[in-house]
Amino acid sequence: VTNQGPVVRSIQVGPAESATDAGDGEASGAAQAIAKAMGASTANLAQAMADASNAASGTSNGGHPKLAAQAGRVKSVSWTAEDPDGDTLVHRVWCAREGSEDWILLTAREPIAETAYAWDTESFPDGYYVLRVEASDENANPRGDALRHARVSPPVLVDNTRPSVTVRETAPGQLAIEVKDALSPVARAEVSVDGQ
């Protein structure tokens, strides 16, 4: 009987409700808040809050929708895979910079039986990455007969660098606060004075 190879059907990164499209290029999302004086002193500045949402939709060079950064540095990677013969499958997970062929093995040297992996991105530079998940029936077949199949995810944004904040006095009793992030849209900015 001829061995039939496994198939990786889909890959998900992060909770579905957290995955949204992000635009190409620099997302220079800026939240500007002007805190106007309630009195003569800046100590009496009222709390200022500004919301800015400038996420743009776009596609990568490969035409795949981009996934926005997930909350936190750990990405939840899950996938579905099946084998026509019913063989027990094992899996390997790699990552690479978008557009690069330098794949980094994320899982241990031995493949994993689970169909989920927690990817800690702390040691990875900010930018877009793709994940490659491979399924293999090597544990159910002789070495020469084992088959593998891999699928590559849409680009995933890794952005562990905090936004930059610039504060300047525009006039007596007035401050201009600018928040920027090189990769992610800035959705919310808050300003408080003396803890208020």
Task: Show the helix and strand layout.
Elements: E1 7-13, E2 31-36, E3 48-51, E4 74-82, E5 90-97, E6 104-105, E7 116-120, E8 127-136, E9 148-152, E10 156-158, E11 164-171, E12 174-180, E13 188-191
Antiparallel strand pairs: 1-4, 2-12, 3-13, 4-7, 5-6, 5-8, 8-9, 8-10, 11-12
Q: What does this protein structure show overall?
A:
By secondary structure, the protein is mainly β. 0% of the residues lie in helices and 40% in strands. It contains no helices and 13 strands. The chain has strands spanning 7-13, 31-36, 48-51, 74-82, 90-97, 104-105, 116-120, 127-136, 148-152, 156-158, 164-171, 174-180, 188-191. Strands 5, 6, 8, 9 and 10 form a five-stranded antiparallel beta sheet that branches. The model is unreliable at 15-71 (pLDDT under 50).
Write down how many β-strands occur, each being a DSSP E stretch of 2 or more residues.
13
What percent strand? 35-45%
Structural class: mainly beta
Largest sheet: 5 strands, antiparallel
Q: CA-to-CA gap between the ends?
A: 74 Å
Shape: rod-shaped
Order of helices and strands, N to C? Answer: EEEEEEEEEEEEE
Mean pLDDT: 74
Low-confidence stretches: 15-71
Share of helix, binned: under 10%
**Number of alpha- plus pi-helical segments:** 0
Please give the radius of gyration in angstroms.
23 Å
